[in-house]
Every structure is written in C-alpha cells, then in structure tokens.
Amino acid sequence: PNSSHRVTLVSLFLPAAVTAVYKQWMPNTNFETASNWDKGRVPCASDVVHFEKNKVISVFVGSPHVLTDMYLPLNGEFVLASGAGFAAFDGSWDPGCDSGATVRFADAEHHAWFDPTLWQPVSPHRELELGGPLFSVDEERVPCSYDDVIFQPETSFRVNIDSSRQVIHLRSISVMGQDFSSPEAWAGYLEGPSAPLQFHGNGTLQVTGTGCTDKSGCACGNSPDVHRICAALAGQCPALTCQNPLQPLGHCCEVCGATIDLDFTPDFDLEKYRDRVVQTLLSQPKYSGVRMAISKVHKAQTFMGIIPQSSTALIQIVLIDDEVGAKTGTAAEQLAGDIMEDIAQHGETLGISNGKMDVATGSTWSGQVGSHAMSRITAGTVLGLFFGLLLLGGILFLYRKGKLR
C-alpha cells in the first residue's frame, strides 16, 4: 500500500536539480508471504512454525494466526499490524489444514543490496514503472548516490549491505512508511532496535538529503561495487548474434546495437536532451522496438592505452533493439545515426561538443559487424606501438651519446 503521509518531495525545493529516482526494494520477510516458507504456503493451525534460532530476522505480521507450536529465533522481532497476533490451536478441525507439518521460515541472509534484480524503479508517487523505451545500465539499477530508496510500508525485510565502500550514500530512505531525509534523523534510526535486524554486512548506509544539482547529470557512484552487481547477474546475459558486441560502461552484459559517447559543455541539460531524443526520435513508429539508456559516466583515461591517468565525465547513450538474426541491432544503429545527425545540426545549441558512435549489428556472417569499434582499436594499437618504438629509440640514442646510464 502507498503511504498517505509522504513528506513534500525534496526536489520541489531544488528547482535546478535533476529529478530524483525512486528505487523500491522488492523482497520482504512478511509472515503472510507464501514464498518466505519452505512449504510455499503460509502456516496454518495444525502446523509447527520453526524459525532458525541463530538467524537474525525481522518479521511483519499483518493478520491473526492460530498455530500448534512456534520456535522463535534468539535474536529477532515481530512487527504486528493492528489486530495481528498469535493464538494456540485448540485442536478443532480446520478445513484445508490437516497436514500437521513443520513449516520453516526461509533464509533471508542471501538478499544483497547490490543485486539489481531485487530493485524496482518507481514513480515519485510510488507507483511501479514497468516497461517503456528507457532502461538503465546494470550499475544504475541499484540505488545511486542521489536516489531515494523505498522499503514498502507494512513490510519487513533483511538486506546484506556488504560493499567495497565504507559508506553507501543515498538521498533519502523510507522504512515502514517513515521517511528519513536528513543525516540526523537516519542516524537516530540506525541506533534503534530494528535497524540491526534489517541491515547486515560491512557497509553503512548514509542519508545525505542531497539530490543531484548538476543539470548535466551525476554519475551513479556504484562503480566500486560493480563486481558485486555483475556477480548477482552471472549467467543472465542474453545470447548475442553480432560478432563484436559492445561493452557499455556500468553494464555487465555485452550488447548488440549502438553506443554513443557525448562530450558536453556547461550548457548541456541531461533531462532536456533525453526528452528531446525520446519525443523527436525514439517515439517514431519505426523505433518501437528500440530501448535506450542515457546517463553520465566516468571513463578511465590511460597513457598509451596502458598506464591509468585519470577519468573524464561523458554522457553515454546505449541503444538496443528487438531485431533478430542478421537484423540484430540494425534499428538501434539507424537511431544512433539519426542522433548523430541531430548533433551535427544542433549540437552547439544543445551543449554537445562532440559525439562518437560505436556499432555492433548483424549475425556472425554479416559484413558490417562492429566496424567502428574495430577500426578505432586497430588505430590505437598501431599508435601505441609507434610511440613505444619512438620512446625506445630515444632511450637508445641518449645511451649511445653517454647522456643516460
């Protein structure tokens, strides 16, 4: 259920801010959720309920239950809704409940914060957003540094927040219908009795109350934990038919289709540009099967393709389509071409200084497979070898002259 007492959205006070993204945690540890029990059903009157004694757990109970017996954990809590509770079974016949089985509560320890499949984007009004032409690269499917996180009201949960970072920053968190959008309020909640039962692991969640105020967008910030995100998705990458698939930044799976890297100026507005592409190009009937991801990312810069130097911010567009066989990625490629043409005509007005497109389309026997990516890799390799030989020749020259020992 939706909360009826949501505080005024923080973004209303930040007119220049990029709209926040709301991400909702989907698993729960509710007593009435059938999948939380090893028998795949909620315990009934003749059953014996068994919680593992050494498993820490928080369980929301939404209604009254009659049970034969119940073994409780040593460290846990029941959160009772109004009218909920437990009573002992008096032995009378209960229709549909004559098994007298031992029903065990499932292990919730494996639910990890950095598993993208356990999060769902929602609208600011907390309605689920499903489908549509826009998607997120895997790193951004998990809450980013400027996102709002929602744990559903009247829902208990347990989540592992192991992280490569000591602190995971978020804009706000809502737990049990209570909203925390200031560091002080969230710190107070963490000191309470429920937080240690809900969150476990070596990471710490920190609420900042701060959204992204850069109109060109903000990088997600989950890069240090991208290995955890990809491990959670292991084996879930789709089979590809293109010969040289692309590897978008922040995405675990290679893709067929097209990517565009944009260099931008201070005039660039990410939301306005995204809306422009969606409304003028992506919404055309011929692109009905194309999906797009667009966001700011940080790309590592290296010297001679080997030595890491720094990172630079750019806008990454990823385009994929539902074409198959030899046509795989061709609709995405066509849209990428239209985007590049639009940039050539209006880039200066849009705040885009440069655009670079990579394409991977067709099947393994198609003649137009990944030509853009391959040509740049070849050129980079030749250039690297040239500078390497030049450097080696310089060292040899100085040595022969006696200038170098």
UniProtKB/TrEMBL annotation:
Residues 1-20 form the signal peptide. GO terms for biological process: protein transport; receptor-mediated endocytosis. It holds the Pfam family Amnionless. Its main location: membrane. InterPro entries: AMN (IPR026112). It is found in: Cell membrane. This is Protein amnionless.
